[in-house]
Write a structure and sequence with these properties.
Elements: E1 3-7, H1 15-26, H2 40-49, E2 54-57, H3 67-79, H4 84-89, E3 90-91, E4 93-94, H5 103-112, E5 117-120, H6 132-143, E6 148-151, H7 166-175, E7 181-184, H8 194-198, E8 204-206, H9 216-225, E9 231-232, H10 242-250, H11 256-271
Parallel strand pairs: 1-2, 2-3, 4-5, 5-6, 6-7, 7-8, 8-9
């Protein structure tokens, strides 16, 4: 099984505006080149063409009330309203906001609807990873039994104020027992110290990155040297083409059994696919 743990899609009527806005915001820091139009239909087509069996679409709750959107998203997936291929292949991922006062109740509702993972984004949610509010939410999600995919490192749409730096990651892993948090991008953008503080620890990472961002050597170090069970493939589509990104990783110095774990085995086990 080949699994892309980290993708995004947007409603068809909003996708052009979202893509345009993100390209504009990133232009002066790390120019983005979309690999698709940002819709679920285009994502499904590309993942199929590139040979991926399952893929997580990772929404981000930028306001507490977007819990209602998450329930609608889950209903649309499970009912087949998004299409039979989406129902079969999309990994149900949801998001909660750190200001959600009913997060305990909401996470249980989403689990009952089939949620397999929660996406958090300290920059888009404007909450530091090691803040009291985020620690509370991390504990709630972890105690409910779900893994978390969290944006870590800097963000190419924002200035350099650290919201999810490597030392913050170490801190939350110490403060949240049994945490299973996948650190997107290996926390590498603007944080070369990720290798010193994270490499070799039992901390999950995904290998998504932007080639023009200068972080490929850091991400490659995690792919080759991090504990095998804690490395997962992610494309960050529409900002990376799954097949092209997978081919780059396959060209590195990685043993076949390790590559198989990275490309799907670890995700299948973590998400119980």
């Amino acid at each position: 099984m080949r699994v892309d743990i980290h993708t995004h899609s947007f409603p068809a009527h909003k996708a052009p505006e979202v893509i345009t806005t993100l390209v504009r915001k990133s232009a002066s820091r790390c120019p983005l080149t979309p690999q698709g139009n940002g819709t679920m239909a285009d994502l499904i087509r590309q993942e199929r063409e590139d040979g991926f069996d399952r893929y997580a679409i990772c929404p981000i709750a930028v306001r507490p009330e977007q819990f209602n959107y998450m329930t609608r998203f889950m209903h649309a997936l499970s009912s087949g309203a998004c299409g039979e291929e989406a129902k079969e292949r999309v990994i149900p991922c949801v998001s909660l906001h750190p200001d959600d006062k009913d997060a305990e109740l909401h996470i249980q509702t989403l689990i009952e609807l089939g949620a397999k993972m929660v996406k958090l984004h300290p920059y888009f949610q404007q909450t530091r990873l090691d803040s009291r509010k985020m620690i509370r939410l991390l504990r709630i999600i972890t105690e409910a039994g779900l893994p978390i995919l969290c944006h870590t490192g800097g963000d190419i749409s924002y200035d350099s104020d650290p919201m999810a730096a490597p030392l913050q990651i170490v801190n939350v892993y110490r403060r949240v027992p049994n945490l299973r948090m996948i650190c997107a991008h290996c926390a590498s953008w603007r944080h070369p110290e990720a290798v010193r503080f994270l490499l070799g620890r039992s901390i999950y990472v995904d290998l998504s990155y932007q080639k023009q961002g200068g972080t490929e050597p850091t991400v490659r170090a995690f792919a080759e040297k991090h504990p095998q069970d804690f490395v997962l493939f992610g494309s960050d589509w529409p900002w990376g083409r799954p097949g092209k990104h997978a081919a780059t990783i396959a060209s590195w110095d990685i043993a076949p059994s390790r590559l198989e774990a990275i490309m799907g085995g670890n995700a299948a086990r973590l998400l119980k696919l």
